[in-house]
Amino acid sequence: MSYYKIDNLEQYFKHYNKSIREPRKFWGKIASENFTWYQEWEKVMEFDMAEAKIKWFIDAKVNIVKNCIDRHLARRGTKTAIIFEPNDPNEEALHISYNELHERVSKMANVLREQGIQKGDRVCIYLPMIPELAVSVLACARIGAIHSVVFAGFSSSAVATRINDSECKMVITSDGGYRGNKTIDLKGIVDEALEKCPCVEQVLVVKRTNTAIKMMEGRDQWLQPLLDDASDNNVAEIMDAEDPLFILYTSGSTGKPKGMVHTTAGYMVYSAYTFKNVFNYEENDIFWCTADIGWITGHSYILYGPLLNGATTIIFEGVPSYPDFSRFWEIIEKHKVTQFYTAPTAIRALAKENLEFVQKYPLASLKVIGSVGEPINEEAWHWYNDHVGGKRCPVVDTWWQTETGGIMISPIPFVTPTKPTYASLPLPGIQPVLMDEKRNEIEGNQVTGSLCIKFPWPGIARTIWGDHKRYKETYFSTFPGKYFTGDGALRDEVGYYRITGRIDDVVIVSGHNLGTAPIEDAINEHPAVAESAIVGFPHDIKGNALYGFVILKESGEYRDRENLSKEINQHVSDHIGPIAKLDKIQFVTGLPKTRSGKIMRRILRKIAEGDYSNFGDISTLLNPEIVEEIKKGKL
Ligand code: WTA
Fold first, then answer.
1. Which of 497, 508, 512, 579 to mutate to test the pocket of ligand 1 (most atoms within 8 A of CB)?
2. Homologous superfamily of 510-633 in CATH?
């Protein structure tokens, strides 16, 4: 019996039970039957949750790109691996076959080696959603360089922080990027970032927009001439199972972003397995995930998961609103997409537009539709199910995280009955538990608590780059012996999970995780600001928006408040990126604090939500009177 594919509910339970009783046998069998290895493992796994040390497929040797591309060539060489759909619908879509992808990745891998990049070196990739982004990622993985993709919407200082944290030697970027009717000056942003990044020796530049840019001699080179001269014969690096594959930054509730490190074999097995099952992938399907490759969703379900299964995956450069709100539906129709995977924020934004945009297209090719990134509200779930899935396509509400590498809790289409707003059941190998405030596991159903996972799975991130202590503290110390997700969840009467949202200081705005601390730091750098506190509040389309409470310096010259708000938002945009801008800024004379000086965010959150019903006991505050003032001034 193969464990790779789940065909019905009975099988799901069978596989699930096997994966819990004998996890090593379960994952060992999947790994050995569905991938090609230079050498198999000595032991399937080893772990010590207290020390946050987890290893999978110990001593195995493998190359993930050989598994993504080379091994498919005999059977699927002429099959399309990647469909590139440009921002401008009048520009022709590109179909890149597995043979062509092999050639392009091999050349790029040779270019990287010729430019001095070796196994273990970090390469920052700051590119728009164009084929070169996929090719660069895969070329790094082929030669064992660790890719660190930075979302091309981040500002120069956010790029610099990420480059410096992992000491990248090289940056791959482009002259610019198209997004809707805008052109983004990516190279300019990189130039500014690199003023603060002494570790970067070289920049390779892809030509996309033909924007006039500055090239710094000795540092910057156009990529195309290098590719033209490169051989397409490349020998892939033999990687150890636990060699780092990539670093991907995610926001923490405090301080600088966390560079989550994923390693080779476990990530490979887990992203492939989850893709196959959660999307009911079958040969000749056309899979489209609308995420950006700058996020984990794009890593696992635009690139690795689909390519490992020999699928056809779409890379879309543009945005859902350009040239109009039917763009997604037009693309599904044009490429006969079978699986569509997007975020609740996009669904809500499109649902608020005229129904005709979606009704114009029959969308008959669709088989499964998915959601990821934040809780999907009931209304959005139904709109998606009715108007996109035509009530025929199972909606897979997939819960997972950058840290988990792949989907953890999700219905399996045509197997698990769906229930709106519920991510439903854990995938085989995943053991979720709910914990109470006293750190005890909550048994039974119809309960809520902090969501933890009590046993390792192959896709879990192994550490935070350069800071294992932080990894251990963030994920393994709140509930000793368990991985803590930072999310709250509810388990219903039949054991289905519903994720209720973050319980730390991370706010998810339009599907992007934003730590409040770095935003506060950016605001506090404004010369007129003394202190600030940021909380999230519900927003119809973005899911959450940011509300800032700002104390101004007493001695400061007071400019008009409106201008000051704009300047503060400009600061946020410069330091983090436009996605982190605040929707509301309220100037206050104080913030509610505990006697130990901690800001009581719980109270600020309630005020921002407009819920004055129960602040709890505020008499223990250092300054209880401030609560009334803040309430009065609420925006
Ligand atoms: C949230 C994205 C509810 C959650 C893959 C998690 C979700 C965080 C869902 C991780 C979902 C993701 N329902 N909440 N289906 N999917 N989340 O690292 O709070 O960008 O902890 O990974 O998004 O976001 P990240």
1. 508
2. ANL, C-terminal domain (3.30.300.30)
